[in-house]
Amino acid sequence: MLLAFFLANTAMAQFNQNAYFLLDSNLATKGFVTTDAAAQNIGPTTKVGFKVYSQAWDNSKGWTVRFEWDSTKADFMKTNSGPDAYNDVLTVNGASITPPAEVNIIGSSVLNAGEINTPGVYEISYAMSGTGAASKTAVGLVYFAIFRTVATFKTTDPLTVAASVTVVDETAKTRFLGTRYFKVNQKIDVKNASWGEVKKQFKDF
Known about the structure:
Layout: H1 2-12, E1 20-24, E2 38-39, E3 47-55, E4 62-68, E5 74-76, E6 90-92, E7 95-97, E8 110-118, E9 121-128, E10 141-149, E11 159-168, E12 174-184, H2 195-200
Parallel strand pairs: 2-12
Antiparallel strand pairs: 1-3, 3-10, 4-9, 4-11, 5-10, 6-7, 8-9, 11-12
């Protein structure tokens, strides 16, 4: 009986078993819209970006995002990026838009829990402020990321940003959710995939 009780409680504590994330380059619309993560016909000193959205998260009190890219092609725009989307005019991905204000999956009370900012690598962690209950939201904004191409960048130049996410649950356990890619000036093969196929990509982590 005691063994059964212990195993049951252990199973209950294993949060975010099916968690993953997706990138969305539709910045003009609030909420997760599309799995498209690309921008085309991008030239020099042009801003590009995407939103990171949680998928199937069942318990989160913090997370880490990490971006890696070729720093000779683009710079990370920290002043335009963050855990929330803001209601301000922005020319990005080839269009002038006003991204709707959007608060991250945990809410407004998040703390910066560590940061790395070097050429070609940006990583930042966030944690819930205070002792509130963990977020149980399955799909929510994790990060709003903006980059700007360098002055020598051409519309024929490719740029790839690798985005990785780790989620932290209420027991302080972490789960690495893998890496996805935002592609600039590259042909994107469109392929229909089931939720199971998407989830399977991250099962080795």
